[in-house]
Specification:
The chain is built from three helices and no strands. The chain has 132 residues and is an all-alpha fold. It has a single domain, classed as Methane Monooxygenase Hydroxylase, Chain G, domain 1 (Up-down Bundle), CATH 1.20.58.
């Protein structure tokens, strides 16, 4: 039983190394592109026309960002089996995995919040534009 468990742990480590490339690519994109673009979109303009332009730019960014989020989530899903292993040898990989999971979750939540905020702001501006 111990031998089988050890073999399974080694298989997981090999699988992690294959999946880690995807994690690194997604993580790098989030840090170098994604977070910067989200920060640029914090301040929205005061006119409906400029706001609609910002919404269009965000939608283009959102397509790419959502793809990275999806790819990261798929890679994490492949590693769900790690939860069953608690040996010391696997612990460092679990820490890395949790770090990737936290980073991805935080970014995807920020993306959702910005998507909602921009959409609601546009709706509000459109409403006020109709009232005038």
């Amino acid at each position: 039983m111990l031998s089988n468990k050890r073999i399974q742990e080694l298989e997981l480590v090999m699988e992690f190394e294959k999946v880690e490339e995807c994690f690194k690519e997604v993580s790098s994109w989030i840090e170098n592109v994604g977070r910067k673009r989200l920060k640029e979109m914090i301040n929205l303009d005061d006119s409906l026309e400029m706001l609609l332009q910002a919404q269009k730019q965000f939608r283009e960014f959102d397509l790419v960002a959502s793809d990275y989020c999806r790819r990261g989530q798929e890679a994490l899903k492949k590693m769900d089996r790690w939860e069953d292993f608690s040996s010391v040898d696997v612990q460092s990989y679990r820490v890395k995995l949790q770090s990737y999971r936290d980073q991805l979750e935080e970014f995807c939540n920020q993306l959702d919040e910005n998507r909602h905020r921009i959409c609601e702001t546009v709706r509000l501006y459109e409403f006020f534009d109709k009232v005038r």
